[in-house]
Design brief:
Region (Disordered): 591-617
Oligomer: single chain
CATH superfamily of the largest domain: ANL, N-terminal domain
Radius of gyration: 25 Å
Strand content: 25-35%
Domain AMP-dependent synthetase/ligase: 18-417
Helix content: 25-40%
Shape: globular
Family: Belongs to the ATP-dependent AMP-binding enzyme family.
CATH topology of the largest domain: Rossmann fold
Strand order of the largest sheet: 11-12-13-14-17
Number of domains: 3
InterPro entries: AMP-bd_C_sf, AMP-binding_CS, AMP-dep_synth/lig_dom, ANL_N_sf, FAAL/FAAC
CATH class of the largest domain: Alpha Beta
Keywords: Ligase
Length: 617
């Protein structure tokens, strides 16, 4: 099994690449060029030269605030990677973040990161510097240096002035701000030692030799896109091939064509990326496609669905895709990235369990005539100890019991930036029997025969009549009802006050354009409620039908159910029709939905309140 070299820091890894293969492409970025994609290549020698030049300039500009991290605000480009590496070359802590190039949610998030991190400098492209400098001044951050890198004004002699930084293994290499699927983003402190340990873990999971070609469309500021698909190939003296998420979403076949054109050996995506290719790549687009180079395709960042794996394999097996290339995995920013991965070279493992027992936090074989749930194994933990713990009693649970996933190992990050109490609570947890030093993930799962099965998130669990319902199961069931319901476009959550006995389940579901008519909206809502009652014994759910694009997601594709709940309560959803239970209606009445011009009369008038369920319902 091939393992990544034992480098101590990313700087050491790239410098080793320069020494052994200076002209090899370290980075390839695919830019949209008409209907095609134009590659921009950067060799190891050029990447190193640019990083050294940025490091010298960064040191000069931040000599008085060396302890303050550096915020990187770039569009998806190779310049982002050179700036990120430049921070390592300068011995500065980097913060990858999306460019706030539009008002609203993204700008608010980056503004929150800037304040939380107390950044000392911002690096960006020359064309964005003026706007970002004005934004910093307006935000009261005039002391933050705003530096443009990657332009024609760079001093070519600066690289020769570079000296290697002195860093300790425990120094914070970068801050990975969580995607915020269930809460406000927090800065995870990833040390140089954490990064090195997780690169080893990824190497074991992917089992690909040095010189690997890895390619993806994931955002460069997201942990899977950055650590797995960009830094890992650099660690292995390989090549990272990238395209923007927008390029992929517009034309999913571009990802597969990238694999074909560059003979990509390793790739990664959330489950929805594979599902999108299965559904939208046409026979014409896949003609002549060869995926036989693909050794491992990681599936992670959201629940892995067995149906997705089977459908993707069936669709592209004729194009050289091997079933064993699909590798379900589990990871999170708080553990740098990877926790576990299925065994490369074997088809993904599945476990069929009794649905009712799963709702009671147990994995049991299905009984005849009972509903079955299929769980996908995320493999064995890599260099990490995994415990399944009752989140209330803090007692360790045996195999086959569902509880919170706790971790302990060298990849577990140092904590959250400037949040001492939350760090102690999350990263230094102790079991009821006194075992200490565990990371509480907030994720729910179970161990079975040494395999990890991830079932959901604690904060998103629906507690109904003593049963634990998983929102993703309800969302998928609704979306499989018919063509009107958009796949991947749903969010299920609870509203109300459980202490006062006023709670309800709300289903928000996007409808596909031209697949419904206004007069049929009430019937669609009734069909959703009937399905949930029949399949999940969940009576009296509220249903909100919305326009495409209403469901908010993180950069990794996770549904932001907590945010969707907030949008529902604030009346900010583009409602086409809603049928609300009394508990939800009382809350919604405080902030009635605002109709959009396109929604028209349906959004304004198609709303009903469902009477309370009686004994016979």
């Amino acid at each position: 099994m091939a393992l990544p070299p034992q480098h101590r820091t990313l700087t050491d890894a790239v410098r080793a690449g320069v020494e052994h293969c200076p002209e090899r492409a370290a980075l390839v970025y695919l830019h949209e060029d008409g209907s095609g994609m134009r590659p921009e290549r950067l060799s190891y020698a050029e990447l190193d030269r640019r990083a050294r030049s940025i490091a010298v300039r960064l040191r000069e500009a931040t000599s008085a605030r060396t302890a303050r991290p550096v915020l990187l605000l770039f569009p998806p480009t190779v310049q982002f990677v050179t700036a990120f590496l430049g921070c390592f070359y300068a011995g500065r802590t980097a913060i990858p973040a999306p460019l706030p190039d539009e008002p609203g949610e993204r700008l608010a998030r980056v503004s929150a990161i800037l304040r939380d991190a107390s950044a000392g400098a911002v690096l960006t492209l020359p064309e964005h510097r003026q706007a970002l400098a004005a934004w910093l001044a307006a935000s009261g951050e005039g002391d933050v240096a705003c530096l443009a890198v990657g332009g024609d004004g760079e001093d070519p002699a600066a690289a020769g002035m570079w000296t290697a930084p002195r860093v300790r293994d425990t120094d914070v290499a970068f801050l990975q701000y969580s995607s915020g699927s269930t809460s406000e983003p927090k800065g995870v402190m990833v040390t140089h030692a954490n990064l090195a340990a997780n690169q080893q873990a990824i190497g074991r999971a992917m089992a690909i030799p040095p010189g690997v070609v890895a390619g993806s469309w994931l955002p460069l500021y997201h942990d899977m896109g950055l650590i797995g698909m960009t830094l890992h190939p650099l660690w292995m003296a390989g090549t990272s091939v990238q395209m923007s998420p927008v390029s992929f979403i517009k034309q999913p076949h571009r990802w597969l064509r990238m694999i074909h054109d560059f003979r990509v050996q390793g790739t990664a995506s959330p489950d929805f990326g594979y599902e999108l290719c299965t559904r939208r790549v046409t026979e014409e687009q896949s003609a002549g496609l060869d995926l036989s180079s693909l050794h491992v395709a990681l599936n992670g960042a959201e629940p892995v669905r067995s149906d997705t794996l089977r459908a993707f394999t069936a669709r592209f097996s004729a194009h050289g895709l091997r079933p064993q290339a699909l590798v379900p995995s589990y990871g999170l920013a708080e553990n740098t990235l990877l926790v576990s991965g299925a065994v490369t070279g074997r088809p993904p493992g599945e476990l069929k369990v009794d649905a009712h027992a799963l709702e009671q936090d147990e994995l049991r074989e299905p009984r005849p005539g009972r509903t079955v749930r299929t769980l996908v194994s995320c493999g064995t933990p890599q260099d990490t100890e995994v415990l399944i713990v009752d989140p209330m009693t803090l007692r360790s649970l045996p195999d086959g019991r569902v509880g919170e996933i706790w971790l302990r190992g060298p990849s577990a990050a140092a904590g959250y930036w400037n949040r001492r109490e939350l760090t102690a609570e999350t990263f230094h947890a102790e079991t009821a029997d006194g075992r200490a030093g565990y990371l509480r993930t907030g994720d729910v799962g179970a161990l079975h025969d040494g395999q990890l099965y991830v079932t959901g998130r604690i904060k998103e669990m629906l507690i109904h009549c003593g049963r634990n319902l998983y929102p993703q199961d309800l969302e998928l069931a609704v979306q499989e009802m018919g063509p009107a319901f958009r796949r991947g476009g749903g969010a299920v959550f609870t509203v109300g006050d459980p202490h006062a006995g006023r709670t309800g389940v709300v289903v928000v579901q996007e409808l596909r354009p031209r697949c419904y008519d206004e007069a049929g909206l009430p019937a669609l809502a009734v069909s959703v409620r009937a399905l949930l009652s029949r399949e999940f014994q969940l009576s009296g759910a509220s249903v909100v039908l919305v326009r495409p694009g209403a469901i908010r997601k993180t950069t990794s594709g996770k549904t932001q159910r907590t945010l969707m709940r907030q949008l529902f309560l604030s009346g900010d959803l583009p409602v086409l029709h809603q049928s609300l239970e009394p508990a939800a209606a009382a809350l919604a009445d405080e902030h009635p939905p605002q109709p959009t011009a396109a929604a028209g009369r349906a959004a304004h008038s198609a709303a009903t309140v469902i009477p309370p369920a009686g004994p016979g319902r």
